[in-house]
What does this fold into?
Amino acid sequence: MSLITRIVVLPVLVAVLIAPLTAAAQDRSQSRSMVASSQGVVASESVLASQVGARILEQGGNAIDAAIAVNAMMGLVAPMNDGIGGDLFAIVYEAKTGKLYGLNASGWAPKALTAEYLRGKGLTRMPQRGIDAATVPGAVKGWEALRTRFGKLSFAQILAPSIRYAEQGFPVGEVVSVYWKDSEDVLRADPATAKTFLPGGTLPKSGDVFRNPELAWTYRQIAAQGAQAFYTGNVAAKLLASSKAHGGTMTAADLSEYEPEWVTPLSTTYHGWTVYELPPNGQGIAALEMLNIMERFPLAKMGHNSVAALHHMIEAKKLAYADMQRYDGDPRFVKIPLAGLQSKSYAAQRAALIDARKATCTIPAGEPDGTDNGTTYLSVVDREGNMISFIQSNYSTVGFGAGLAVADAGFVWHNRGGGFSLDANSPNLIAGRKRPLHTIIPAFMEKDEIKIAFGIMGGWNQAQAHAQFVSNIVDFGMNIQGALDMPRFSKETFPGCDVNFESRISQAVRDSLAAMGHQIVMRGDFSSTRMGAGQAVMRNFTTRVNFGASDPRKDGSAIAELLSLPLTPVRR
It folds into this structure.
């Protein structure tokens, strides 16, 4: 071989050898890489909110401080989804003790908001809008409980970024602008609501700068006085005035006597991983039962999003949700067979009802032993390894919760009371000082030195989305970003064979499932409305490296805390 030939051929051979490696590295199905850092990581559905959380970490705060700061920002930048007029739940992993703690900061119905009261107004079903759909907001008491027990910074420090952005303004995001537009008629129906969220009578559009000085005022009250401002102070006065103006039943005692509850997370195992959810009144028990049923089948061998895997997961969802609807509620008012619903033996009984050849459209609740859409999810891990899985909600995204702003306070009432029932046989029959069945659930999973705080929002989608996320990681070996990205199904209803599919699930798979009796409703490639959207952070406690992931179905991002960097050039 001549010198010239060698010169020509060698680069070609190198290119041929490298090309497959390069293609394999770049030809992947997830939307982006995980964020990896030896410092803290914040994941939320707003880049701006995640940046604020990262800055709180840089200023000496921990994961809990950052989570509260992010939530406050989300109440500003996505006011239809969440805010201090709503409730929250959280799971906290404390690094120094290695213990998990659960917080239920869901509010109760006013004492006078009873089934008799509503039936006396001629209602036969729970209202989904208006003041009678509002329960006591638990979020601010939840903030205080978290900060008091685990936080390092003051409320003044934590809320400072949100106060500044509320006063100076921020550009409205693309996804948020769509929700805003969908709610326009509801916002215009109430003068106080229109004043706050349709400034100058104009609907904020993507890229428009929106300011909320009323919310800045409210946050300043909390910064100065803590939760007392919201439940007995100046903000409480505005809440009570708003309730009275709309004919509501809320009293000063309903607000001042409310307290959140520290709870012990429930758990199950799934192929060697331990998965944690909070106990009722949330739907987390359905995620655990669904995973127990799924574990009875070889999903990994069936293949990801194959006909067999999807069929068995959808049927598992129906079984678990039938039980949730039958038994779940406020455990202070109803007896819930938690041990039975969590048990592997009960899951085996329920799994035996699945017909591998066809969909079942009517699935009754079982009898376990002991029988008697607007949300934000965020997660944070700090450099010490403290982690928080945090979810907070106004309930209905379209309509801004109850559709009523608290006049001159910058936030809306949630409509979580819509989760109650007027059916006398329901475990969720409304009663004074009772908490409704909640859709919002944080989650946590661990195996050996790997711990993951995760959640996926979206109404009744959440438990089934949690189960799919866990399966993506455990059965199919995905990382947390890939597990969020993958196309999902979501069955919003409890009975029936209807099920939502993202269009990225192949036509051949959809046709085979339809032939089995599944009534498929097609959605877009990335459907945040039907499939929800999630965030996740992960820590490897051996390497002390943190990871973050953010769902492409929303506008958010995982952002890492920066090391303290010199502001002047380093001399050589």
Notes: The mean pLDDT is 93. Residues 502 and 524 are 5 Å apart (CA to CA). The two ends are 50 Å apart (CA to CA).
